[in-house]
Amino acid sequence: MDKNHQPRTRREKKAEGTAPKKRLRPLRWLAYTAFAVVYIYVSTILWIFVGPFHGLRDYLIQSVDATRHAYLLRPLSLYTVSEATVKKYALSSNLSGPTIPVADIKRENYTNIKDNTIKVITYQAPTFKAFILLVRDPKRIRVVATKYLHQRGETVQQMVEDAHAVAGINAGGFVDTNWQGTGAYPEGITITDGHLVALSGSKTAPQPVIAFTKEGQMIAGSYSLSQLRSLGVVQCVGFGPVLVENGKEVPVQAGWDRNPRTAIGQAKDGTVIMIVTDGRYATGPNDAGATYEDVANLMLKYHADIAANLDGGSSSTMVYEGKVLNRPVDILGERSVATSIVVMPSKGGANSNG
Question: What is the pLDDT of residue 27?
């Protein structure tokens, strides 16, 4: 018998027949795994957005909008969330607060302040860490916008460098093409050194703003462009809501919980209070973030007579002497934004840490 044509044994034939099944096993497990992942994802999305836990759904919608990525909400929810619902919870629709009539605003003049001190404070609370700048001379405050206006934003650090400033925080909101949050288009009224830099929304109706007059007085509330002009406003960004008014906390009805926060206020003596908090567990389990009430109370601790909320979440950033003090929560690091509020240098000034 030819050795090259020996009959195969039953064991050899069985082994040969089962080989394709062994090769199919990895593919089968891969298919099972993919099915399980898709099933878990779909069921979780439906549980959150369609299930009975409306509070969880609302919180997630608000949180995504606060990161300026509202365009993700509908595909993230498998299109179970309507466009009307997205607009209902849009951050820009929930910034209004109490507004003092222009005629009732007591005008203050801080042009004679000669103290150029900036005090830097780190404050540790049970659920967040805050970084605070106390700027004694409010005339050093300036609003700056990205130099790539209508193209893309810049980081706070870049804007501080562009302006040759010594410090800065992120400022107003921005609503870009398809809600993608690239920082190209500032939201509301933006004024720098008395010049209108950007205007979205109505030209005549009041909009939520945080502003400073040429005498260094902070204004916060909903005001029209013409009203801001009549008050002598030279620096302005669009955001809110008001957190402190006439030295008292203003309750905020919006449902946002703990998050990174940015806020600005002013004491009766003219001192500007700039606050940025960490949050979203960026630095550990005791770093959930701050509520509006937390920030308002912190403002009152440093004697704010007026204070207002600025854009927060992944936008929250504080820069001082070339360094980012807080821990930004954007996955890419310091986020590009549309506007910043910076502190300009002043000859003979003194800085101190506390």
Answer: 78
Tokens describing residue 164:
């040759």
pTM, rounded to two decimals? 0.77
- Cβ–Cβ < 8 Å for 145, 200: no
Buried b (16+ CB within 10 A) or exposed e, 18-56: eeeeeeeeeeeeeeeeeeeeeeeeeeebeebbeeeeeee
If we measure between CA atoms, which residue out of 280, 315, 331 comes closest to residue 172? Answer: 315
Q: Please identify which residue in the block is written with the tokens 């050899």.
A: 12
Distance CA 349, CA 347 (A): 5
- Tell me the per-residue pLDDT of 119-150, one tens digit each, with 9 for 90 and over: 999 999 999 999 999 999 999 999 999 999 99
Q: What was the pLDDT predicted at 177?
A: 61
Tell me how far apart the alpha carbons of residues 192 and 341 are, in angstroms, rounded to a whole number.
10
At 120, the amino acid letter reads V
With a pLDDT cut of 70, the percent of the chain lying above it is 72
The total of other beta-carbon atoms located within 10 Å of residue 136's CB is 21
Tell me whether the omega of the peptide bond preceding residue 101 falls within 30 degrees of 0, making it cis. Answer: no
- Name residues whose C-beta falls within 8 Å of residue 158's C-beta, 6 or more positions apart in sequence: none
- Check whether 99 has a pLDDT greater than 90: no
Burial degree of 217 (CB within 10 A; 0-12, 13-18, 19+): buried
Going from N- to C-terminal start, the domains of the chain cover: 10-89, 98-353
Q: For the sheet containing 141-145, what is the strand order?
A: 141-145, 339-343, 167-170, 318-320, 323-324
Residue bearing tokens 């005629």? 103
